[in-house]
Amino acid sequence: MIGKLIVHAETREDAIRRMARALDEYIIEGIKTTIFFHKRIMTNKDFIEGNIDTSFLERIVLE
Q1: How many other C-beta atoms are found inside a 10 Å radius of the C-beta of residue 24?
Q2: Which of 7, 12, 18, 50 is least buried, going by the fewest C-beta atoms within 10 A?
Q3: pLDDT in tens, 10-57
Q4: How many domains are contained in the chain?
C-alpha cells in the first residue's frame, strides 16, 4: 500500500460526495492504482443507497 484515503462527513451522502471529489483530485504517477475503480463505486446507485452485500463487488465488476 502506498497510501490510504479516508473521508468523513455528517451523512453517508456527504461522505460519498467528498470521497468522489477527493478521488478526482488524487494524483499518483508512475504506478497502477485502483482510483478509477473506487470512483466507479462512488457513482454506483446501489452503493450510494447503501444497498450492498457480499456480492456487491462481483456485481459491479460485471457491469
Answers
A1: 11
A2: 50
A3: 999 999 999 999 999 998 888 889 899 999 999 999 999 999 999 999
A4: 1
